[in-house]
Amino acid sequence: MDTLSGLMGGFAALANPETLLYMIGGFLIGTFFGAVPGLTSVLAIALLLPLTYSLDVTTALVACASIFMAGMCSGSITATTINIPGAPSSMMTALEGYPMQQRGEGAKALGHAALGSMIGGSVGALLLMVVAPLAADVALLIRTPGKFSLIAFALIVIIISQRGSVTKGMIATLLGVMIATIGIDVVQPLARFTFGTSTLVQGIDMMPLIIGTFAISELLIQADSRSTRTVDPGMIKAAPVRRRDFVPPLAEIREIGFVRYLKSAVIGYAVGILPGAGGSMAAFVSYAESMRSSKHPERYGKGNPEGIAAAECANNSMCGGAFVPMLTFGIPGDPTTAIVLGVLVINGLQPGPQFMTQQLDLIAPMFASLFVSALILIPLTLYLLGPYFLKIVSIRRDVLYSSIAIVALVGSYVATYSTFQMALALVFGVLAYFLRRQKYPIVCLLLGFVLGPSLEEYCRRSLSINDGNPLIFLTSPDSLFFIALTLVFFYFMVIRKPKDHGLGPTPA
Amino acid sequence: MPSRHALRSRLLDGEFVLPAILAVVTLIYLISALELGPPMRGGNMTASFFPIATAIVVLIALVVAMVSALRARPEAPEPAAAASTQAGEEGRDDAPVARRYVGLTPGAIGVIVLTAGYLLAFDLIGYFVATFVYVLLLTGLFSGGLRQQWVSKLVATVAITLAGYLLFEVVFQVRLPTLWSQ
Fold first, then answer.
1. pLDDT (tens digit, 9 = 90+) per residue, A412-447?
2. Which of B89, B110, B144 is closest, CB to CB, to A334?
3. Domain annotation covers residue B48
4. A3: which residues sit within 8 A by CB, 6+ positions away?
5. How far apart are CA A113 and CA A308, in angstroms?
6. Is the pLDDT of residue A25 over 50?
7. Does residue A351 lie in a domain region?
8. A453 in B contact zone (CB under 8 Å)
9. What is the pTM of this model?
10. Chain B residues lying within 8 Å of A84, measured CB to CB
11. Tell me, what's the pLDDT at B87?
């Protein structure tokens, strides 16, 4: 009952004009960053991170949630209209949306995408509110050896989910772990890898790493493009659309069916809970399942609203699932929740099993923001801004990237009022640039950095309570469970690789 | 068996060079970790155990990556406009292929030099002057020069500099350095 009233309080908090303003502002920023090819909602949240020093934690979390939700659905705009997914999670939407655009049904395709996102996002947010408190109760049962095995499980799954580049995933993850070891040791008061520099004794802050890997590296990559605008104005030649064109016909919604929407949402949510999976994997799995169970699989790839609904429903539902491991175990499975964890840490909060009960008043508005963003802001944005979407995302690149550079660099300065953090952001940006150029997943770098210290701490604590005997990891039931789970995932993801049934490259 | 020329070109390729450089960095890290003391003491892990273990695994993975790079078949050149999607949610690498210097494209070198200059100038000459010059040069870099549409670039530069000031100093109450604040 306390949980229910706490969650209701979250919705009430959105009535605060300032919080509401940040939610709507965050949603519009997320829509823009998700829709513009080359930008992502992760970058938008990364740029927001320094500002959270001055923001109230609830307001910051509300803005993060609305950016996350908006970024997941807005990638469908350019995926449908010009066949360039604004975000990786919209790749499957492009397969169906663009053929619909070519036969003059682009607005309808966007309507189906928005409806799917709306349903998926709402269901995901509701499931988060129901499942997270239960998961928190389960998390209380996990002891120190189990925590080590759980984090090891998360890191291993993140690595093996990098299809075709497991070695690169492992290198990037462990580089993140190595960077995290700089500074004071997690158990003893001993400085490590400072190389005689006093500024490194405090360790590497998460912010320059995030700003560097996501913002600065993007600037370096985009610096070589010769186009002057983010979307070529020559591609914007579609016939003018009316607002009512965005409303999908009831007959088509019936044909897709309530069960398909619900199933896609549950798939997306479940995939979201898994470490390293993300929105593109959720959309891929749901799309594949929808095609498998469809009465008309032959229509897929030719502009089928069913495929759009399945993909968009799943990638938005994923947003809810992704928060479960972060809030209940303190283990983020994707970059967005890793940055949200950063927001919490900046404000002196550490997620864990009791976080849901002790800090529900702080995080309930974030749940409410996810739900309201999906249920109200997605359709409202499409209705109000739909006819102008392509004009909005076709922005001058010099203005866009100069603005990003200033927000990123000055944002890095905010934490300590020192240019050292800005210099670190540049160093990590250059490192991430090289990694990205050679297809090393930089998400792994961030997650390794976030999870590394906990992995080391729980490993050492487990061994010290058992006189250095590593058998504790096999004799402790919770630890054994996660080791078995790791083996199951390894078997299915590495030894028995799933087939893609001709759906194109499998997203990681 | 690849020819000597093919082997040489692969050795200079980023696919090999990057893990090689990372291996050197990891080796330095490993040596520093070994200097921290023995990995085990009294049956318990010390502060050096985890870094040593991590560095060893990274080195093995880097050797695997280097061997794979040497064995790999040469890839067909990427189409300039192809938008490749990177794994995960972090974004896309959709810039066209350009000539590289030490693995960096001219545009990337430009951004790095400008940004390094900005960091040096930020504390010395303050937010306004440093940001104005940095943004003006960046707009030139991202649009192929400052001569075309220079008025609109100037207006955009002033607008971005002022917007940054309003956002950080006024809205978020961050004290930014100024020319006379030292």
1. 888 778 889 899 999 999 999 999 999 999 989 999
2. B89
3. yes
4. A133, A356, A357, A360
5. 6
6. yes
7. yes
8. no
9. 0.86
10. 83
11. 36
More confident residue, A164 or B156: B156
At residue A220, the 3 state secondary structure works out as: helix
3-state SS of chain B: helix, strand, coil percent to 5?
60, 5, 30
In a domain, B154, yes or no: yes
Interface test with B, best of A224, A316, A420, A439 (most B CBs within 10 A): A224
Domain boundary among B50, B74, B98: B74
Task: Write down which residue in B74, B96, B123 finishes a domain.
Answer: B74
Same domain, B112 and B165: yes
Per the domain annotation, does A442 fall within a domain?
yes
Tokens of A121: 């996002």
- Is the CB of A414 less than 8 angstroms away from the CB of B174? yes
Q: Which residues of A touch B164 (CB under 8 A)?
A: 403, 406-407, 410
- 3-state SS string over A144-178? HHHHHHHHHHHHHHHHHCCCCCHHHHHHHHHHHHH
Is residue B110 situated within a structural domain?
Answer: yes
Among A347-356, A499-508, B155-164, top mean pLDDT goes to: B155-164
Domain around B133 = 106-171
Of residues A336, A319, A406, A294, the one with CA closest to residue A118: A319
- Give the type of residue at A482: F
Number of domain units in chain A? 1
Q: Assess if residue A209 is contained within a domain.
A: yes
Number of structural domains (chain B) is: 2
Verify that B59 and B10 share a domain, yes or no. Answer: yes
Compute chain B's Rg from CA coordinates.
24
Identify whether B182 is part of a domain.
no
Domain that residue A445 falls in: 2-228+243-495
Is the Cα dihedral B139, B142, B147, B150 positive or negative? negative
**How far, in Å, are A3, B127, B157, B161 from residue B133 at the CA level?**
53, 10, 8, 10
Q: Nearest-CA distance from A406 to chain B in Å? A: 7
Does the pLDDT of residue A507 top 60, yes or no? no
Determine the angle formed by the axes of helices A106-139 and A305-329, rounding to 10 degrees: 30
Q: Indicate if the pLDDT at residue B29 is higher than 90.
A: yes
pLDDT in tens, A300-318: 888 999 999 999 999 999 9
Q: Write the residue in B58, B65, B135 that is nearest to A406 by C-beta.
A: B135
